[in-house]
């Protein structure tokens, strides 16, 4: 009961409750619940929202603090830069500065000002970032025919989750109906999209592009190979083929020669770097003669070197 009586007394004396305490009735004040820091991506609209209570017949202005340039007064723009505009709905307490499209030079401090006497103002900060997509596999990818193409794209530094992320192959959007085994999973919260192409064939090779709605695109060149694969090829976790060949060839040398020479072993290990598995099988079938020849050659060479050094 006493609170109601107290409120009546304040109203009679021209005082009312404001956002930061008791304010004179009819005096404008800022709603401090408004978010005062905003982030926008380059090329996208940026918004700064200022809420003013009890505005009455006063005007709200937006000022760029670095040069004290008046951008807008009310809903009128006072800048030659048409990217700046003031948005306001009748009956609303919100006055919004829109910068569209935002550029890196727009980053900085802005001020929402009310034409009271003396003037009152509230500072805001805008940060404009360059949002870029990134494909985690790198700029080039080699895939063995029959395995899966698995591409993951992340929209980095995007202030808001992208409304969509499109995948292109060349100039065309990846067509799910063109063949089976193609799927895309997009997680807006993590700003991530995954493209999976099962059982890749050589005709699936090409330039794949990830294009988020609010970020610069990223591309990767995919090679689907039928033969031996380079080191950059996607792997399902199997032992690297060169390492396998090295182990097998070393085993062949050790089991064929009773006293394998270190020089001969080193020579074969180097050769295995350039030897395919099919070539290894042929060498394994006819390995005795060439290995014994190389063994005799390396022994003779080692003895001659040893004699000359004496």
UniProtKB/TrEMBL annotation:
Q: What is this protein called?
A: Ig-like domain-containing protein
The species this protein was found in: Arctia plantaginis (Wood tiger moth)
In terms of superkingdom, the source organism counts as Eukaryota
Keywords, sorted A to Z: Membrane, Signal, Transmembrane, Transmembrane helix
Report any one BP term from Gene Ontology.
Answer: synapse organization
Which InterPro entries does the UniProt record give? Ig-like_dom, Ig-like_dom_sf, Ig-like_fold, Ig_I-set, Ig_sub, Ig_sub2, Zig-8
Location of the Ig-like domain: 28-115, 118-221
SUPFAM superfamilies named in the record: Immunoglobulin (SSF48726)
Q: Name one GO cellular component term.
A: neuron projection membrane
Q: Which PANTHER family match?
A: DEFECTIVE PROBOSCIS EXTENSION RESPONSE 4-RELATED, DEFECTIVE PROBOSCIS EXTENSION RESPONSE DPR -RELATED
Q: Where are the transmembrane segments?
A: 264-287
Q: Which residues form the signal peptide?
A: 1-18
């Amino acid at each position: 009961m006493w609170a109601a009586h107290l409120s009546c007394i304040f109203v009679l004396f021209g005082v009312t409750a404001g956002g930061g305490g008791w304010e004179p009735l009819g005096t404008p004040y800022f709603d401090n619940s408004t978010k005062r820091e905003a982030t926008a991506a380059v090329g996208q609209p940026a918004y700064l929202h200022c809420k003013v209570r009890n505005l009455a017949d006063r005007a709200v202005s937006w000022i760029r603090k670095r040069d004290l340039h008046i951008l807008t007064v009310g809903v009128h723009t006072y800048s030659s830069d048409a990217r700046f505009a003031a948005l306001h709905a009748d009956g609303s307490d919100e006055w919004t500065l829109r910068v569209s499209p935002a550029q890196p030079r727009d980053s900085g401090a802005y001020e929402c000002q009310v034409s009271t006497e003396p003037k009152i103002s509230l500072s805001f900060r805008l940060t404009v970032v360059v949002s870029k997509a990134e494909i985690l596999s790198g700029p080039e990818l080699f895939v063995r025919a029959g395995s899966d193409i698995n591409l993951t794209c992340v929209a980095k530094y995007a202030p808001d989750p992208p409304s969509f992320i499109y995948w292109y192959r060349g100039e065309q959007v990846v067509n799910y109906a063109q063949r089976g085994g193609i799927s895309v999973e997009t997680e807006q919260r993590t700003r991530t999209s995954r493209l999976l192409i099962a059982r890749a064939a050589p005709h699936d090779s090409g330039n794949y592009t990830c294009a988020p709605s609010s970020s610069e695109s990223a591309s990767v060149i995919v090679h689907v190979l039928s033969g031996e694969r380079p080191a950059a090829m996607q792997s399902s976790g199997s032992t690297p083929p060169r390492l396998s060949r090295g182990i097998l060839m070393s085993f062949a040398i050790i089991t064929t020669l009773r006293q394998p020479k270190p020089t001969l072993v080193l020579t074969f290990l180097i050769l295995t770097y350039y030897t395919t598995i099919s070539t290894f099988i042929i060498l394994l079938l006819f390995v005795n003669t060439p290995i014994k020849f190389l063994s005799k050659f390396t022994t003779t060479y080692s003895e001659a070197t040893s004699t000359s050094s004496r």
